[in-house]
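Researcher: Here's the sequence for the chain we discussed earlier.
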Amino acid sequence: MSEVQNTPGHGEGKDPSAPPSPGLSRRGFVRNSALLGGLAALAGGLPVGTAAAATTSSTSATPRAGAGSAQGSVDIPNRYGKPFSVADDELFIFAANFKPFELGGDDAGREASRYFNLVLGDAIRARFPAVKLKYATWDYPIRYEDIARAGRLPDLIIEDPRTRIDRDLEPLGWVADLTADVQQAGIDLAALNQGAVEQVKSRSDGGLYGVPLFIDEHVMLYNKLIFDKFKVKYPSAGSTYDDIYQLAKKLTRQDGIDHYKGFMQHPDNYLALNQLGLYPFVPGASEQPAPADVKVSLTTAEWKQVAHTINQFLQLPGNTFTTVDDFFKGDMSFPGHLAMAVHTLSKLNAYALSPLYVEEDDAEDYAEWAKAVKIGVTSMPVLSSGSNAIYQPNTRAAFIPPQSPKKAQSLEIIKYLVSEEIQTRLSSYGVKAVLPTDAVKNAFGTAIPELKNIDTSAVYWGENAIVKNYQNTEYWDIPLYKVFRQHVLIDGMDVDSALTVAEQRDIPDYIRAQAAAGFTW
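Model: Thanks. This is the structure I predict for it:
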């Protein structure tokens, strides 16, 4: 997931602190003529079958014939001009919205497949030697729009279910209810992380569009060098926000010409993934309400409790919010001047200098910045003493487009991916698995040598919050950034007023504008 909620995905060269545009994202598509017109302008129109799939509800999409060429493969032209084709007998896996998947690809001819092959692909090929895999990741060399134009859909997609079902997969007609298929395949959802399972269900219109695979969990990183310099005790697992606030006050300070900040947590993600499992949409009479019938609620006592908790850090003098990347080097002038930050496991691996998680061109900078940071890791803060609720999970899940002729094979692969064997493998490569057995937990980071001297025992601490009251709602990627990054930090509003304005004006205006432009997210 991008570290900024309701903004375009990473890699666009945009300022992450800038307000998002309500226009079409680079992965955004729609169900109606806006999709067809936009793609027709780009490439002279879609194949008839793709157009039908793109404009059909995901629950009624039908398999499309004729995707294969006479030569037994389909070429997928792309912006890079790189030859890319999928043979009829290949099982096509496409992944998006997990940065490590993208590393290793550039314009010199390397495909971005390094991470996938090492962590998942090689194991899949060994387990299913008769299956010919074809893999690609967004956006090198292909994107969703390239795939849609060519008419050769993936057989299995790995994506972020929280925001991308409604923004990408559902508008293209690339999801369908897999409840019965998952049961018949013998995939035991009850054994998996329930926060991840419910998150997928909450975006699945009353069904189950995908199966969770892993979590790029949020943890709290702390710089031991700052704590040691000022002789402050390190934070521990289960610390409350009040505990961390007291530490932040001690560590937000000037020392000669050096200014240190105590704590940062991205306020957009804090609201969207909140630890009470609050869902902003009000249940109505349908799983797919008309835009005019979508209602939100951000002004309940629970929402106010959540919002006031983070606001104390945003108002702490000298602790001005910039970006959580400042734990290493972001917008602040110097690296290593932020004591604590809530960030993802993929960033932990990058800050530990694992080449699997650092872009080759960035390696020299990361190595230099690392000199100012000695990494400590613990759980993110909890709302109250005795609670063990952390964020709703930053999940990646597997989806099978209903048009795929290789559905049975894809289901077998998904079943393998949630087995203890592969979940242990995923955990060993530094992400949080969705199958929380002891063997899986104990394997965390063992395949990443750079984590050897970092205590990561808190990675599996706590329980992911479970989203609640999502039945009969439709997810829209609403501009929660307005609450803090606009109204509190720029406009100077108090928290309650910011929540009220977002609920009564910003979000309704956003939904009306999106609907008027033909978008359904």
